[in-house]
Design brief:
- Helices cover about 15% and strands about 25% of the residues.
- It is α+β, with helices and mostly antiparallel strands and about 675 residues long.
- The strands form ten sheets. An eight-stranded parallel barrel has the order 8-9-10-11-12-13-14-15. A six-stranded antiparallel sheet has the order 19-30-20-26-23-24, with no helix packed on it. It has a four-stranded antiparallel sheet with strand order 1-35-32-33.
- Helix 1 runs parallel beside helix 3 and helix 8 runs parallel beside helix 9.
- The longest helix has 18 residues, at about 215-235.
- Its EC number is 3.2.1.23.
């Protein structure tokens, strides 16, 4: 047994701090606000949030009477068209065009409109799936849509994970139990503002492999993934008694459009494996012609209506009902941006037009959730910009699952079109602001190295994806440390993606990034260690740029144009196995005195928002929550809080004796001390 390197002394030069937030032990209670007022299951809406919407983002709405002469004239009653009521099934979701009135969807032969809302199971703690789905149903929606992330389900080539928070089947069956239909969007590419658009990073190992094409290497990987995924979907289909009424083929391929054979191939791959429900494509309104495929229903994504919204769609199919597969009621945020906010009244008006003219739609997002761990993607429009940890999206429900002005406006709207009363609204999850806490243990970065897996020794630097680890699948997320002994200074040149801190021994001397690939190293009197710590800040999830998203150091490293050779490379993936090896978890599990020091926080468990007041503009950190989930902060901290859900502690098998949450901070820059929490988000 190695002795633990932990010290009771507090240092902020390099640290990993640990503290507990007990939730259900007895003692003095937290201050918290339960922003609800329940009267017979109804919730009084909160005060509307102030919005600052750019004038160009939501213009004056255009009436759909421009396109459709026959608006709906009666209320809808689909109480007999739910997964719980429909027992004898044969025809599933279909389309019908009689020549009289608008084309429409049918379900088991009955006229049907899709009122969909997006919830991504992988962005919501499993403990809160039911709460979010019940709120979707209570608002008046009849369908939930979700992406299926390949990169999470096959993190290493050939190793599949559909357990815990990735239990797709459990999520779909729970939706059915609640009375919701399901539309699955399994990709293989999904965008969704997640790393590499949901494609596994190990696909980047081979520079000859072309993503999202019929390239042999890519197709072979897709085939093996579908061989594991689709058999799980088959029994969930409508005609098998499940809630899945439609399945999407890929995602927004019209904006990529590199291989005309690709979409027909995916179509056939799904049919060949037994998908029998309605298949559809999803594209931006201007990319339908290049994204649709024969025999598959074309749908569109949009934020606003204008005169030519449906022009391309009508060129592809005039005798099919309209489905807005993504109606964007908000937008994602990137580090350094202000939080995007949209006008609830405009959302209400547009959805009202959809319903009035019998257009099916899916609200993206109904509930955005959180980019746990290193899930976040990035954009590249001349500059790399990572998507923030919060996927609040200014959605109908907040990141924490709270109601918004949009929720109550849509609920009232749906209620006015429904022939039967809507379900009662679930109670809110109370939030708490706990007393400040100070991390009490630390572990310096350089002391961490002894607890990592065996380092890689290489003649030249190796990028993250090609490191010979994880059964040959490389490293997907986190950081990589490149170490080399040097005996002279000069001009250092290295291509580091996305951001690197450069050290001489343990002293930082500068930063490298996409805009700064050179750094002056002072003259040395003795040989010293050159250390380059590179962070992956999220792979681009949209555009052809995904092909070039290798992380770490790509290419050679030189000083005064002379290439350096002989590197020791350490992988810092921030997996739980690493923290267990350091002895951190064992030390935490017996720290009764620490619990006493920070105070007992009450009998009731409440969610909270971590508010690290010590975060500065030059600092980035990773926090691991409840030994299961992690959050990420940027060096551009427009996002000021991290949502901390309260989890069912029975799921924490290694720490089930403690009803508390562990927070581990990985600090890249020296900063302050206390960590605070608040009962309100600051996005």
């Amino acid at each position: 047994m190695r002795s633990s390197p932990l010290s009771p002394c507090l240092s902020w030069k390099r640290m990993v701090g640990i503290f507990f937030l007990p939730f259900i032990l007895s003692g003095f209670g937290p201050r918290f606000k339960q922003e609800e007022n329940h009267v017979f299951g109804k919730v009084h809406p909160p005060q509307p949030r102030v919005s600052a919407v750019p004038p160009s983002s939501l213009p004056n709405p255009l009436s759909l009477s421009t396109f459709f002469p026959s608006p709906a004239s009666s209320r809808f009653n689909w109480s007999h068209l739910t997964p719980l009521e429909l027992k004898n099934r044969s025809v599933g979701l279909g389309t019908e065009s009689t020549g009289q009135g608008n084309p429409h969807f049918t379900l088991e032969g009955h006229k049907f409109l899709i009122f969909g809302g997006s919830i991504h199971y992988f962005r919501v703690p499993r403990e809160y799936w039911r709460d979010r789905l019940l709120k979707l149903k209570a608002c008046g929606f009849n369908t939930v849509t979700t992406y299926v992330p390949w990169n999470l389900h096959e993190p290493e080539r050939g190793r599949f994970d559909f357990s815990g928070n990735l239990d797709l089947e459990a999520f779909v069956l729970m939706a059915s139990e609640i009375g919701l239909w399901v539309i699955l969007r399994p990709g293989p590419y999904i965008c969704s503002e997640i790393d590499l658009g949901g494609l596994p990073s190990w696909l980047l190992q081979d520079p000859q492999l072309l993503l999202r094409t019929t390239n042999k290497g890519f197709i072979e990987a897709v085939e093996k993934y579908f061989d594991h995924l689709i058999p799980r979907v088959i029994p969930l289909q409508y005609r098998q008694g499940g809630p899945v009424i439609a399945v999407q083929v890929e995602n927004e391929y019209g904006s990529f459009n590199k291989d005309k054979k690709y979409m027909p191939y995916l179509h056939k791959a799904m049919l060949r494996r037994g998908i029998v429900e309605l298949l559809l494509t999803s594209d931006g309104e201007k990319n339908v012609l290049s994204g649709h495929t024969k025999g598959v229903l074309a749908t569109i994504n949009l934020q606003k209506l204008h005169r030519n919204t449906f022009s391309q769609l009508h060129k592809v199919q005039r005798d099919k009902p309209l489905l807005i597969m993504e109606y964007w009621v908000g937008w994602f945020d990137r580090w350094g941006d202000k939080h995007h906010v949209t006008d609830a009244k405009e959302i209400e008006h547009t959805v009202s037009e959809f319903i009035k003219y019998e257009i099916s739609f899916n609200v993206y997002m109904f509930h955005g959730g959180t980019n746990f761990g290193f899930l976040n993607g990035a954009t590249y429009f001349g500059k790399h910009a990572g998507v923030v940890t919060s996927y609040d999206y200014d959605a109908v429900l907040t990141e924490a699952g709270d109601y918004t002005e949009k929720y109550f406006k849509l609920q009232k709207l749906f209620g006015s079109f429904s022939a039967i009363p809507l379900p009662r609204v679930p109670k809110l999850t109370p939030k708490a602001a706990y007393p400040p806490v100070r991390p009490s243990l630390y572990l310096r970065l350089w002391d961490v190295l002894a607890y990592l897996n065996e380092p890689v020794r290489s003649h030249q630097p190796i990028n993250m994806e090609n490191l010979p680890i994880n059964n040959g699948s490389g490293q997907s997320y986190g950081l990589v440390l490149y170490e080399k002994s040097i005996c002279s200074g000069g001009r250092l040149c290295a291509h580091a993606h996305d951001m690197a801190q450069v050290f001489l021994d343990e002293t930082m001397i500068g930063i490298l990034n996409e805009n700064n690939q050179n750094l002056h190293i002072p003259e040395l009197r003795v040989c010293r260690y050159l250390r380059i710590l590179v962070e992956n800040q999220g792979r681009v999830n949209f555009s052809w740029q995904i092909q070039n998203e290798q992380k770490g150091i790509t290419g050679s490293v030189s000083i005064n144009n002379s290439s350096l050779e002989g590197f020791t490379i350490y992988s810092l993936e921030m997996k739980m196995s690493f923290f267990e090896r350091t002895g951190i978890m064992d030390s935490c599990s017996s720290m009764d005195v620490t619990l006493g020091d920070i105070g007992i926080l009450g009998l009731r468990k409440h969610c909270t928002f971590l508010e690290p007041g010590f975060i500065q503009k030059t600092m980035r950190c990773v926090t691991l929550i409840s030994a299961l989930r992690s959050h990420k902060l940027s060096d551009q901290c427009e996002l000021q809080c991290l949502f901390h859900p309260v989890l069912n502690m029975s799921h924490l098998s290694h720490y089930q004796s403690f009803f508390s949450s562990q927070v581990i901070l990985f600090e890249k820059m020296m900063s302050g001390s206390d960590i605070e929490s608040t009962d309100k988000p600051m996005l």
